[in-house]
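Entry type: protein chain
Record version: 2
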Amino acid sequence: MKTKISTFYLLLTFTVITFTGCAKEEIQGPAGADGQNADVYYSEWFSPTAWSGTAGDWYFDASAPDLNQSVVENGVVLAYVWLSGDLYNSATVRPLPAYALGANWSFLVHQYGSIEFTCDMSTQPFNAGDKFRFIAIPGTSTALKTASIKYNTKSKLLNMPYSEASKLFNIKDSVQISK
């Protein structure tokens, strides 16, 4: 009984923190990007031009003007990767963080307006066919509230399959991803 009550309060706390105290802000998308709907902003699929770092600690930064303080602190940032050498089929898009090709792939927002993608391969992970995308969901988003019903923990939400995120957040794919 005590476990059920604790779980209920944990879920209630998550819901209250996630969906209160947020003010709607107008956010400008990247120049030339068609990546926005009424509540959600997303990047185009892009490939890194170069990785920085050393063996086991590779990274590249991408400009992300939609990742402002309000979105980062009160909303949710999802990131996805498509790796051209992935063992699965050509339609495999993985939510980050993920383990693939013998390495851990992840992302972080180390400053507002920028996103950093990371990889712990022993050799530099440069493949021009690899594609990355992020989705910025403000805390006031109706779509985020809908998603939190099915994905009732932050961990589940961050691991939402790309196909479901695309449908739920009305994301259009402008690039055909294939091997």
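Comment: The first strand starts at residue 41 and ends at 42.
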